[in-house]
User: What shape does this take?
Amino acid sequence: MVIYSQFGAQVGKTLAGFYSQQELDTYNPTFLRSRMIPEQFLNTHFVEVKQENLDDYLTARGVPWLVRKLISGKMQKGQFLMKPDGDGYVYNTGNAARNLEYRFKLGETFTDTGYDGKQHKITISMEGDKLKEVHFNLERDVGGEDVFFYSIQNGNLISTCEAEGNGKKTIWKREFAKKN
Assistant: This one.
C-alpha cells in the first residue's frame, strides 16, 4: 500500500500497521480534494448578472404559466456566498425577496427549506471541478430532483440546471459576477 501526505508526497508503508484504511485515505490528495470545496468557490460574494431559459426550464418541469410568471419575477438578482465553518460550510443564497442559509458538510444530505419555501432534502458535493447542489422537494409529487452545477469561468460563477420535457432538454443558466 502506498501512503501519501496531504501534499502528495509518498510517506511510506510503515503507517499501514498503525492506522485504519479510512484514516490512511485522508492522506491521499485525490481523496482530500473530493472532501473539500476549492477556494475559488469560497469567501467571494457573487451576484447574478445574467439568466437564460428560466421560463423554458420551468415549462419542462411542468410548472403552470401563472406560477412560472410569479417565479420568474422572484428569481432575479440572485446571490451566492459560501464560507468554511468549522468542519463544514455556510452557504447563503437567494435574492432580494428571499435569503436562504444552509449549514452543511460536503457530501452529506440534510433537510432544510428550499427556494420554493418547501422542505427539501439537499446534498452539496463536488463532481470533478464543479460544485453540485441537489434538491429533492419532499412536498412535491412530481418532478424528481433539481440538480445545479456551479463552475468558475473567467472569474464568474456559472450555474446550470437541466430539465427534460416533451422530449426536449432545457438548460437554465445563470451567471454571477463578484460583488464590488
